[in-house]
Design brief:
Elements (H helix, E strand, L loop, with lengths): L2 H31 L5 H13 L5 H8 L3 H13 L3 E5 L7 E5 L1 H22 L4 H18 L4 H11 L4
Antiparallel strand pairs: 1-2
Helix pairs in contact: 2-3, 3-4
Length: about 160
């Protein structure tokens, strides 16, 4: 395969991954909207459940790999919708712990069932070997992406191409 053909294949493959991700995210958001949730709200409810008594805003942000500022607004909206409540932290009176209300637990349970059905339907056309192949390739891609330094690429391209 020529260098030009390889470059074109790399671009079309990359675009296929991006488009599949975008469509998946769009459909997933639509699914969760049916339960009055956004993807970040669903993620926060899951994190609160997983963290249990350790569900402080900082721990939730760390679990979701976002800033605490990003979590604050989501927590307030979940509280406003009666899905989440807070209580003072047992060991640190300056902090608070988040917990799901009964309504929050019920909503999350329904959304989990719908998410599982969505995933099953989304992947139904693929046999076990195709699923393993996809998982392996996406894990390899993610691991490789972590080794790439976008700033170094920018610097390299800038030194090769004169500015206009």
């Amino acid at each position: 395969m020529s260098t030009a053909e390889r470059a074109k294949l790399q671009t079309t493959s990359w675009m296929a991954v991006v488009r599949a991700y975008q469509e998946c995210t769009r459909r997933y958001a639509q699914l969760l909207h049916g339960f009055g949730l956004t993807i970040p709200q669903f993620d926060v409810l899951n994190a609160v459940t997983q963290l249990g008594d350790g569900a402080t805003p900082k721990a939730i942000a760390d679990r979701l790999v976002v800033t605490r500022g990003n979590i604050t607004g989501v927590l307030h909206r979940l509280q406003d919708h009666g899905l989440l409540r807070t209580r003072t932290h047992e060991h640190d009176g300056r902090s608070f712990v988040c917990e799901l209300t009964d309504a929050g637990n019920a909503r999350l349970s329904q959304a989990h069932k719908a998410a599982a059905a969505f995933i099953a339907e989304q992947l139904a056309p693929f046999d076990d070997d195709a699923l393993r192949f996809t998982e392996d390739n996406m894990n390899r891609m993610r691991a490789h992406l972590k080794t790439i330094d976008p700033d170094a690429i920018v610097a390299r391209v800038r030194t090769l191409t004169p500015s206009t």
